[in-house]
Design a protein that fits this description.
Layout (H helix, E strand, L loop, with lengths): L5 E2 L4 E2 L2 H39 L11 H25 L3 H5 L2 H21 L2 H7 L17 H17 L4 H22 L5 H78 L1
Helix pairs in contact: 1-2, 2-4, 4-7, 6-7, 6-8, 7-8
Length: about 270
């Protein structure tokens, strides 16, 4: 009667057919937005790598380990760029288009997680620790030791994901809090030049950004589902009205034919009587 209802706690339609139709309508948009997102990241990584090369990798000091650090850093950024291009090509493939909705969401979420992991790995401090340097202070430029640039990249992910990718809020929430876990893991496993008090504040701000990003995505999804529900109800009413008009027209035509037949029979009887 009134159409499928939206469950407030899970943001899904009570009717499976309505949920399947809603999911199917989002596949094309997810495919297009994922292509734009991964393409933009590939372009950004290309520009960032070019700037690093042209600057002579100024983030590292002129020491005997610089060549090894540059090689490892270049390899990490090359892997990130290759993965981004691969993801952009994958979302254009037929397999991506014909996959189930949850499979597409898992693919995009895992792809974004790997890119976030590469973002953490390419930080100069983490690169130097991965190369086995116990004191990164002597090989990293003084302005590149802090986590500000790394947090800027993470904030870029968290603020653009809810707006560009139409994933369900559960997936984006898990990905957002995975960024916090990665940041904490990198601090405990590889250390950091940032003071402990600043690290605590960074974690708090990251949690706030994650929470706001999650709420933003959930509100957008609620709006999308309510709009889809209105469209479904409108199309249902229109279909019912068209069926009634068709039935009325069919019944009216049948009555006219019956009346014409009766008049014809009466005229024939009149001619016989005459």
């Amino acid at each position: 009667g009134s159409g499928p209802a939206v469950r407030a706690w899970a943001l899904c339609f009570a009717e499976k057919e309505a949920e399947a139709a809603f999911v199917q309508s989002r596949k094309a948009c997810l495919r297009r937005n994922a292509l734009v997102y991964f393409g933009s990241l590939a372009a950004f990584l290309t520009v960032y790598s070019t700037v690093c090369v042209l600057s002579g990798w100024a983030m590292y000091s002129d020491t005997s380990e610089k060549d090894r650090l540059v090689t490892v850093h270049s390899a990490i950024m090359g892997c990130g760029l290759a993965l981004t291009v691969f993801y952009a090509i994958a979302v254009r493939s037929t397999a991506f288009t014909d996959s189930r909705w949850m499979t597409l969401e898992m693919f995009v979420a895992c792809a974004l997680f790997t890119l976030v992991f590469v973002t953490f790995a390419q930080h100069p401090w983490n690169v130097s620790r991965l190369c086995g340097i116990s004191d990164p202070h002597r090989v990293i430029d003084a302005g590149m030791e802090q986590d500000l640039r790394l947090l800027m990249f993470v904030d870029l992910y968290l603020t653009t994901l809810p707006l560009m990718l139409r994933l369900r809020w559960e997936f984006l929430g898990g990905l957002a809090f995975a960024c916090v876990v990665l940041y904490l893991g990198s601090i405990f496993a590889l250390g950091t030049a940032t003071p402990a008090s600043c690290c605590i504040m960074n974690v708090i701000f990251l949690l706030l950004v994650c929470s706001m990003s999650l709420v933003c995505r959930r509100n957008l999804e609620r709006y999308e589902r309510n709009f889809f529900l209105q469209v479904v109800q409108e199309r249902t009413r229109r279909g019912e009205a068209e069926d009634r008009l068709s039935e009325f027209a069919h019944n009216g035509t049948a009555k006219l034919q019956q009346k014409a037949g009766a008049e014809e029979a009466f005229a024939g009887q009149s001619r016989v009587s005459a």
